[in-house]
Amino acid sequence: MGVPTDDLAGTGVGRSGRDDLVPHDAAGRAAWCGALGLQAVVWGTPAVLQYAQMSEQVLAPGAPGRLATFAHERTPAGPDFAGFRAPNVDTLYSNAWLDLRAGPAELHLPAFGDRYATVQVVDAHSNAGNISRRTVGDDRRFWLVPARWRGEAPAGVTVVPVGTDIVWLLLRIQVLGDDLAAVHRLQDAVTLTGARSLDDPVPIVGADEVEEDWRAFYRGLDAVLRLNGVPADEWAHVRQFRALGLLGPEPWDEAALDEVTAGALQDSFARAQSLLRAGRPLLGTPTGTGWTRVRDKGAHGHNVLARAVMNHVGLGANVAEENTSFNTHVDADGVGLAGARAPYRLVLPTPPPARAFWSVTLYHVETGRLYADPQGRHSLGGAAADPGDDSGPVEMVIAHEDTGATSWLPCPQGAFYLILRIYSPGAAVVDGSWVPPGVAAAAPPVPAS
């Protein structure tokens, strides 16, 4: 469920020991701190974006939720969904934030039957695991515990260790047609007890703020480090950030920085944001058809740039074993997808092998938000995709205007990208023998049958 964090000694934040050198001359200090700042932003982006979301949802004055309580979305995500970028529209989301410093939290789930559902357990550094039929079968009672916990759970309880004290739970329950009322009943049957509250004063930062203001970003990063520590196998990398005012005895303070260091952090923050934006189309392994497959989402290990870009694209990416996804920003000829060049035609000779279901969803490139189609159609597949029907083919037309096609996915006039999600992927997806074909450009209209 994650990686164990190091015990941070002395001040409670950073290991004791002599700090590294910091150049005294302005040019040297600017170069050195700028290089460290770029690494700090890349390394810390997943944790800071999650912390900012937690701030807005449960910590800020007037926040709509509270810790250790599920907040349930009652309708599928739309263009105004504010939780994170690139949401799916196949499930209803519920999310909760936990503080496990005082010990376990107990989660109890209802019986979901044949309906797909998973509780994604995400530590503060975006390492993810799942409580789902794939991982625990029909178990319904769980204890979420910090990795250092050495207690004993009652009989009938499944223990789920997590790598950090602050934990994000992201529940997804499949929507079948228009059965929202049934999903609401399942959401309301989920219970969560036992986690403590963040009773210590902590900084509050906004989700937009930490991507626009370097000072807000570092306040958030400092808060994450103080609450959760550093993964033990990443300490050598993170320790060097002490030169930036992090990991010290006092909370990070812009006023404590000299002018040169502050300027270097501001400049390197801007460079890092540009780097992350430019990296969005590069996620995953190319399939040769224009699509890329993201193999290590939710479990990036030491691939810190890939981890940062993934979370910049959208928080809460699930591990590939639970939800394999393919992304494409281009057509089969490598030309960027855009409504001005539509219509496009996507033909899947056989449906994606899925033990649950699959869907293709469309997003704006610049914002990662769903396209505000007047008909509210953002995806094809989903609940209408029968996992038992592998006869194929599946055809869809992507265009700005209605072409008369039976399966029409509306797109904006500008640039867009597609995500193909396969929930509980079949063996051919897992072993890589099934990949989606390219998106064909300038397709003629497909008449309705």
TrEMBL record:
Q: Where is this region: Disordered?
A: 1-20
Q: Where is the DUF1254 domain?
A: 69-193
Task: Please state every residue range assigned to the domain named DUF1214.
Answer: 323-426
Enumerate the SUPFAM superfamilies for this protein. Answer: VPA0735-like
State the InterPro entries in the record.
DUF1214, DUF1214_C_sf, DUF1254, DUF1254_sf
Q: What protein does this entry describe?
A: DUF1254 domain-containing protein
